[in-house]
Design a protein that fits this description.
It comes from Brevibacillus fortis. The chain has one domain: Rossmann fold. 33% of the residues lie in helices and 22% in strands. It is built from 8 helices and 8 strands, in the order E-E-E-H-H-E-H-H-E-H-E-H-E-H-E-H. Strands 1-2-4-3-5-6-7-8 form an 8-stranded mixed beta sheet, sandwiched between helices.
């Protein structure tokens, strides 16, 4: 192949920039619909691990939103949050998506080495709320009543952290294969305080999912997710509508495309009681 014969692939109507916060660089990817924006603005999906799945989600929504009456997927802005890397993942995600817990609570590293530094979830959430979201809202037509956050694995764990500590931050929470076992003690502590945050005007929807083939009993993700859903659904006056979905024949990694397809319908559906 002669490299001069080919040009880089460009995803239509997609843009990127670098944002720096607390001496950490984030690669921000944004895709916008071709449709004219509704008067209230577009729904927006904040997507964790943007390096790995931004293109997948962008193309999925570009195709499916052409016929929302058939697919249930409406045009939406996708904001992928990644890092300056060509790889699908960056070690910084371990810091950004977690709280610090005793080493005894962490699973063993299959490579036999120590895990990267952890404990930056609160700092990362502050970046989302005080830097990224205001920047996106000033640059694009956003419907602030239709904001979703989407994460998988450690990203799904972070989604739960946000739901339990700042439930008003988003209206839709999508936690795919959430690594509850990483920060379970922190999650339970935050969950115990959640009832004090459930104001009468709160109306959020949370979706926890898992691939059937990753439910192998090691980390009890399915059992822990179902137990959390039951507790969340019984809190307050029904301000949190929590549901669970298991995808047949999918592993921890292969589940991502079907999770994205299902998550798009969940994220762009108009919030209603």
């Amino acid at each position: 192949m002669k490299s001069t014969d080919y040009q880089p692939v460009v995803i239509p109507r997609s843009y990127s920039k670098i944002m720096t916060y607390q001496e950490r660089d984030y690669h921000i990817f944004v895709s916008i619909p071709a449709d004219p924006p509704p008067e209230s603005g577009f729904p927006v999906i904040y997507l964790l691990d943007g390096n790995s799945v931004f293109a997948t989600m962008t193309e999925a929504i570009r195709i499916q939103s052409r016929g929302p009456e058939r697919t249930g997927v409406c045009p939406a802005i996708v904001v992928g949050i990644g890092y300056p890397t060509d790889g699908p993942f960056h070690p910084a995600r371990f810091f950004d998506y977690t709280y610090e817990v005793p080493v005894s609570e962490l699973p063993g590293n299959p490579r036999g080495s120590e895990w990267p530094q952890m404990g930056g979830a609160e700092q990362f959430l502050t970046f989302l709320e005080e830097e990224l979201k205001p920047s996106i809202e000033s640059d694009f037509p956003i419907d602030r009543t239709q904001q979703a956050i989407f994460g998988h694995s450690l990203g799904g764990l972070f989604v739960l952290h946000v739901l339990l500590s700042r439930p008003h931050a988003f209206q839709r929470y999508i936690a795919g294969s959430p690594s509850i076992h990483w920060n379970e003690s922190v999650l339970l502590a935050k969950e115990s305080q959640l009832p004090t945050l459930l104001t009468d005007d709160l109306n959020v929807h949370a979706l926890l999912t898992i691939g059937e083939l990753e439910n192998d009993g090691r980390f009890l993700v399915k059992e822990k997710s179902l137990a959390m859903i039951e507790r969340l659904s019984s809190m307050g006056k029904g301000q949190i509508n929590a549901s669970f979905k298991e995808f047949a024949d999918e592993t921890h990694s292969s589940v991502l495309p079907v999770l994205i397809s299902h998550g798009l319908k969940f994220a762009t559906k108009k919030t209603a009681r």
